[in-house]
Amino acid sequence: MAEKTINPLLKSGLEYGPIVAFFAAYILLKDRVFTFGGTEYEGFIAVTAGFVPLMILSTLALWRLTGHLSKMQVVTLVLVVVFGGLSVWLNDPRFFKMKPTLIYLFFAGALGFGLLRGHSYLESLMDAHLPLSKEGWLVLTRRLVVFFLGLAVLNEFIWRTQSEEAWVYFKTFGLTAAVFLFFMSQGSVFRKYGVSKEDDEG
């Protein structure tokens, strides 16, 4: 099914709205404790309990409006539901904090597997249509594998050694900025291996 075009602001809101909502709710509720069924839950767990269904609803809305979800969106949603659910069910925030690590390890592993076969899965994985030659895709994929592994290690370091609030800031802003800066720094790859649309089709 071809992807339907929707308002870019609406699309961005559905993709990033839950993350912004998670951050705002955490800032408001981080010092509160909630009692449910005789069990006390800290603010982080309560916010996670709200984030999981919000993420499900926003992803379903995005699929309904566009008729399409990327592999990255599907994998991310599954890991949010599984590890967010475990954190709430077991009343243990560590599972949710490990989620970014597993996401980056999964994509590094998938891309690395493709490289071992001499292929780049990057374009289909990210639903990208960048005008790169085959060699360019391989170069970019190798760099992204290393980058994802680095983010996985960094996330483990942050949540295990820093405060919970520091990790929330890192997850909300640091990881997003890191991915943005990575692609901004790859200008030399796009210049060296870039091809025109006509050449790519030919």
Q: Could you characterize what this model shows?
A:
- The chain has 202 residues and is mainly α.
- It has two domains: 1-90; 93-202, no CATH class.
- The protein has nine helices and two strands.
- It has helices at 8-29, 43-66, 71-90, 94-116, 122-126, 134-161, 164-184, 187-193, 197-201; strands at 33-36, 39-42.
- A two-stranded antiparallel ribbon has the order 1-2.
- Strand 1 and strand 2 (39-42) form a beta hairpin.
- Helix 3 packs antiparallel against helix 4 (94-116).
- The longest helix is centred in the last third of the chain and has 28 residues, at 134-161.
- The radius of gyration is 19 Å and the shape is globular.
- The mean pLDDT is 89.
The largest sheet, given as strand count, sense and whether it forms a barrel, is: 2 strands, antiparallel
Q: Give the count of helical stretches.
A: 9
Task: Give the averaged pLDDT, no decimals.
Answer: 89
Which overall shape is indicated by the principal axes computed on the Cα atoms?
globular
CA radius of gyration is: 19 Å
Q: Compute the number of structural domains.
A: 2
Helix content: over 70%
How many angstroms separate the termini? 25 Å
Helix-strand string: HEEHHHHHHHH
Structural class: mainly alpha
Low-confidence stretches: none
Read across the widest sheet, the strand sequence of neighbours is: 1-2
What is the total tally of β strands?
A: 2
Strand content: under 5%
Which key phrases capture this entry?
two-stranded antiparallel sheet; globular; 9 helices; 4% strand; 202 residues; 2 strands; mainly alpha
Topology readout:
Layout lengths: L7 H22 L3 E4 L2 E4 H24 L4 H20 L3 H23 L5 H5 L7 H28 L2 H21 L2 H7 L3 H5 L1
Antiparallel strand pairs: 1-2
Helix pairs in contact: 1-2, 1-7, 2-3, 3-4, 4-6, 6-7, 6-8
